[in-house]
Specification:
This protein is an alpha+beta fold. It has one domain: Sufe protein. Chain: A (Alpha-Beta Complex). Helix content is 47%, strand content 17%. The protein contains 6 helices and 3 strands. It has a 3-stranded antiparallel β-sheet with strand order 1-2-3, with helices on one face. Strand 2 and strand 3 form a beta hairpin. The longest helix has 23 residues. It binds FE2/S2 (inorganic) cluster.
């Protein structure tokens, strides 16, 4: 991020967001896609922002999670913390990562950005569902980009 843009970004977040959120928004973990992933979903929040999540899974355990979003700083933080929470989980454990688990891990978000955590949780659940579907038809992976 360009220095001036970053300064502005932090100024906009300070006061409204806690340190954990600012840290994940400034230094998001696991950004990008996973080519030939084992599960993928893209969700759109009530605000119109989108968030995508890619999973690598081995023996029903999530070995890698990445994300991308065109949303706000809070959605970047939610995507980032979701990848951290879901890494090394079994797919069943990952299904239990809901909005509240994301909010707890981020030490909370302002009320008007709780939907960003909802978007990340719903997208994770959809990516796990995609993994489950895909594992029933493994040949479909050959047609994925
Ligand atoms: Fe749209 Fe955060 S995801 S405002």
């Amino acid at each position: 991020m360009d220095e001036k843009v970053e300064k502005e970004f932090i100024l906009n977040m300070q006061g409204e967001y806690n340190e954990t959120v600012i840290d994940h928004a400034r230094n998001p973990r696991n950004v990008g896609n996973i080519p030939q992933c084992d599960g993928f979903a893209q969700g759109t929040g009530e605000c119109g922002d989108t968030l995508g999540l890619w999973l690598s899974v081995k023996n029903d355990r999530i070995t890698r999670v990445t994300f991308w979003t065109d949303g706000c700083g809070a959605s970047i933080a939610c995507g980032s913390i979701t990848t951290v929470l879901a890494t090394d989980c079994t797919v069943e454990e990952a299904m239990k990562i809901d909005r509240d688990a994301i909010l707890r891990a981020l030490d909370g978000l302002p009320e008007d950005h709780v939907h960003c955590a909802e978007l990340a949780a719903e997208t994770l659940a959809a990516a796990v569902k995609d993994y489950k579907e895909l594992s029933k038809f493994p040949w479909k992976k050959a047609y994925m980009k």
